[in-house]
Write a structure and sequence with these properties.
single chain; alpha/beta; 9-stranded mixed beta sheet; two-stranded antiparallel sheet; 45% helix; globular
């Protein structure tokens, strides 16, 4: 069996398991149940694979096997259920998928799944503390009354029993890819709610490459969702032959934060530090009461977020908003300010997805934008096609900031801004537009070359931008106007006359036919 077939089979089987919930549970919710079950199945198969391996080495010496298993990167404990009145053990089993599968007909199967996950979490706190606290397999409001709920959970366990995820059968890449595949499919089904946990893969890949990550970098996504963008950035470094990097993230939505933690584990990035909380009002990536600083900061933050915390920003203890406090109803520059301030001085690189309003809106946003440009931090403005996101059909832009352009930095002499209009670079699909590799490569080539390209790219001086009142609207800098083909007015008039003559003849015939029919 080839990896390609294995990937397709795993994807198909995992997606088929979703049929259990379709039409009953909202896609934005049932993704949690599916992804948690995929996670449990994987760690159970990982554990089983290692158990079988040690069994070959040590035979019937279960104690020795147990000691070896306890030294693995992930430990599955034993669950002991006791009678509330007598305190006697009523059931004992390994906290894994297979034990739950054996009990799939139990009247309290939802409760058993919850208990099992809690034991798994408690035993692996360093990696999973709090990860399962927002998921309830015994929820009547989400999964229905007892009879229906038990039937659905039984089907779910039976569907996942068809998946063989042992490392001897499939690589860890396949598991991680399946996780990402499911998130992409859930995003398509979830529509606007997908913005809480997903950035389209092609946008993530482009953003990751624009950020130019290198071996040894500390990489942060302050609005990390399910962690896909962090994975993309790390894979750029891994593709260059290194695993020397550190990942950091923060996510405000509890269930999405849990997905990110599991995503990191499934991709072999257990050491990633993913915090739960509001980045703007309660930044958690701090050390010695200071914001942590990073070589690379990337994000797809919520667009034009209302009530983001402007009332507290003026007295921010980390002084992130010293260039100005963004409007209460639009938090775009609050996220940008945070990202720039957490990038390493004279070195850090920032790449962020923004709505086009960020480029030209005035007031407080205009003043912040002007200061960022005058501080020589803005490196590039890249316009992308419309309808790339499941959350919105509007076109978006990418902003790249580079703190090595500051005084004393390696690029301090660079003072221009590159504008790229890639809004027409896409392939149409049924529901969303898609950027192909060729479209991304063209953007990256233009970014590296940093030269004017007719109707595509322009390198603007600060003077030119100042003359435009620091308005970054891309059409001011990249002229994409196409001259229309010259129209022969006389020929068109002649064609209209001929059509009108033919229409008159048709109407005369219609009247005659209707008269003959007595109408």
């Amino acid at each position: 069996m080839t990896d390609e077939i294995t990937q397709q089979e795993v994807n198909a089987t995992a997606w088929a398991a979703c049929d259990t919930f379709r039409g009953v549970v909202d896609p934005a919710q049932y993704k949690d149940y599916i992804l948690v079950m995929l996670f449990l199945k994987y760690v159970s198969d990982l554990w089983k694979d290692h158990y079988d391996e040690y069994r070959k080495q040590y035979g019937e010496d279960e104690e020795r096997i147990r000691r070896r298993l306890q030294r693995e990167r992930f430990v599955l404990p034993v669950v002991e259920l006791k009678d509330d009145k007598t305190g006697k053990t009523t059931d004992s089993y390994l906290a894994d998928f297979y034990s739950l599968y054996e009990r799939r007909n139990a009247a309290n199967i939802g409760e058993l799944i919850n208990i099992t996950l809690q034991h798994v979490e408690d035993t692996n706190k360093a990696k999973l503390e709090g990860v399962f606290r927002n998921i309830d397999f015994n929820s009547e409001s989400n999964l229905g009354k007892t009879k229906d709920r038990n039937r659905r959970l039984k089907h779910l366990l039976e569907d996942f029993a068809k998946l063989d995820l042992r490392p001897t059968r499939v690589s860890s890449d396949v598991i991680g890819n399946t996780y990402i595949y499911l998130i992409e499919r859930f995003a398509s089904d979830a529509g606007k709610k997908a913005g809480e946990f997903y950035t389209p893969k092609q946008v993530s890949r482009l953003l990751a490459r624009l950020a130019r990550p290198r071996a040894g970098d500390r990489i942060c996504d302050p609005t990390c969702g399910s962690g896909g963008l962090l994975i993309e950035v790390s894979e750029v470094i891994e593709a260059a032959g290194s695993r020397d990097f550190a990942l950091f993230g923060q996510e405000v939505n509890g269930s999405t934060w849990a997905l990110a933690r599991m995503n990191m584990f499934l991709h072999g990035k257990d050491s990633a530090r993913i915090e739960w909380g509001d980045t703007l009002n309660s930044p958690a990536l701090i050390g010695k009461d200071q914001l942590l600083r990073f070589n690379v900061v990337v994000a797809n933050p919520p667009f034009s977020m209302d009530k983001w915390g402007a009332d507290n920003a003026e007295h921010d203890r980390f002084n992130r908003f010293w260039r100005g406090v963004p409007p209460k109803s639009k938090g775009d520059y609050a996220f940008i300010s945070h990202m720039v301030e957490t990038a390493l001085p004279q070195e850090g690189r920032v790449a962020v997805v923004v709505p086009h309003g960020v480029l030209f809106r005035g007031g407080a946003e205009g003043r912040i934008r002007q200061k960022l440009i005058e501080d020589n931090l803005l490196d590039a403005v890249i316009g992308l096609p419309a309808n790339l996101f499941p959350t919105t059909s509007i076109p978006v832009a990418l902003l790249v900031f580079d703190r090595s352009r500051e005084k004393g930095g390696a690029r301090a002499r660079c003072s221009d801004v590159l504008f790229i209009d890639a809004s027409r670079e896409y392939q149409q699909s049924k529901n969303q537009n898609v950027m192909l590799d060729s479209h991304m490569d063209r953007i990256l080539t233009a970014y590296e070359a940093r030269k004017d390209v007719d109707k595509y790219a322009h390198v603007a001086s600060v003077k030119e931008i100042a003359e435009n009142d620091y308005n970054l609207n891309i059409p001011r800098y990249v002229d994409t106007f196409e001259e229309e083909e010259e129209i022969d007015v006389a020929a068109v008039e002649k064609e209209i006359e001929q059509l009108e003559k033919e229409l008159a003849e048709v109407r005369t015939k219609m009247k005659r036919y209707l008269k003959e029919l007595g109408v």
